[in-house]
Design goal:
The protein has 16 helices and 19 strands. It is of the alpha/beta class and 617 residues long. A hairpin with a 2-residue loop joins strand 11 and strand 12. The longest helix has 82 residues. The C terminus is likely disordered.
Length: 617
Amino acid sequence: MQQYSSLPDQNSQIYARPKPLTTIQQLRAKLWLESSLNQLQSRLSDCVLSACNNVPQAEAAEAQILQTVVNEINSAVHSSNLALTDCAVGIALFQPQETVATVCYVSRSPSPNSQPLFLEVLTAEKKLLLRLQEVIELEDLQQLENQQPPSAWRLADDSGNVMGWLIIAPARLNSNRESLIEELQAQLRSQLMARSAKHCTTALVQLRQILSWQQRYQQLSKSNQELERTNQLKNQFLANTSHEIRTPLSSMIGFTHLLLAQGYEPTKERQQEYLNIIQSSGKHLLALINDILDLSKIEANQLEVHWETIDVPLLCTNVLALVKEKAANKGLKLRLELDRDITTLVADPLRLKQMLFNLLSNALKFTSKGSVGLQVAPKGVFMHFTVWDTGTGISQEDQVQLFEPYFQIAKAAAGGAEGTGLGLAVTRKLAQIHGGSVKVESEVDRGSRFTLVLPLKQEAGDEEGGEAEEAEEAGEAKYSSSLPFTSSSSVEILLVENDLPNASLMQIYLRKLGYQVTWVKNADEMWEALTQLDPVVILMDVHLADANGLNLVQQLRENRQYRAIPIIVQTARAMKGDRETCLAAGVDDYISKPIDLPLLASLVAKYSKAPSLVDGE
């Protein structure tokens, strides 16, 4: 019978178990590694959290993260029982578009007051002694990264963007240490550095995300504030505009009601007074609409400017005449001071009048006693138009926003002062279009001085547009309250107009001038009328109920029977390019609504080849 021994075979694996001392050393080494990494991760989390809670210092948190990595690794290798005490740690930031990096952090020696140590590392080809601000080549960093064991670890995010490098010098080991300890040291150093680099990279990525979120939040907050401010200005503008529109409308509707009321028969003088009020209110409404349109056209870069050589004294006199009545009603004196060396100015006369009128109107608005003046003088290659007053003045706080659209001085708005807050904004933008500027000097209760500065010369503008403005101004200048009757009964006009009040207005006015006017309101009626009439001029509305007026013009031009008839378009479309669009469609001329009756008469006379009806000849 075979006997079996109960003792284990000497070759069995029971004797392959590690020695207790070796196991304890391995556990202690792993515990040290995990403890060091946990400590590092905790410190990095504190840095990121601090950046979240302290926005002004967030940009400095990246430097704090890098320094924390250096300090924690240095502390770990110095506080362990492993032979890594004589190594140094450094971080080099690397820009992807460059081939070099700069050492930004180097660990200090155990003595707290000592200077930073240099970092001594070996590549396959040379020894590198790195100090703060030392430059290291990308090629050397890659060699340190690829050698075994590695001495450099790159800090790269998920997209491969390199944010820096972590470098460690090899440890100098004593010769009497066992091979197991040497192996542990090499393994643990590589693990410590590799995992530290990952923790550092994660913290840097989180920090940059936080900074990006903070930046977006600040931009969003700024946008929200701007939107809120714009919304407040819009509401203020709508309230002001509503007031501005309703005030003249109230007068127009009220006095029209009086004139139409049965049993009320005002005297001729009283009727004239009512009609003057209605006309003045209508002009006020038109000025309000023009301000809104002008600002829109300027902001869309669609404002037409027509350069002309201007008689400055005459233009200034005409502008003062426009505000003379308002000044007289408030008991204010108007003064005009012209330098005797004054010269001509090249500008858009209509826009220059508008700018000076806006400044003078504002001066009169905020002046209750004293005087308002316009002083004009050339200075070098510029002309200075200064509007001054003895009014309430403007605070420094209000001056900052004075030229912003829709802005109104609080005390003026509270006091019921008229205006939409667009006049000064339009004036400044018009001045900039002319190559000039508007400046303000003011003190509270000491009056204000607004200076419009314009260059004396400009490049030549659109001659055709200038002629149109001249024609319009000529019509205004020759207009009078009495209509010039003529005997042009043989001149037949075909009026194609969709709007009944406008059609009645033009029909009555042209008939008073002696024309035969046939009114039709749509395309079908127009074609029917042309079979019975031989008009010398066709007045065409653009917006009809059953057709587009410009399409009708093109159809008329394609018809041999009607192609020679002059066509004048009347339309409410008054933006830049509308005139050119109409002319391109084949019309002979263009007039915008509200209809300027004297200009209408001038254009009809021009194309009907009749004598000047405006002059009554």
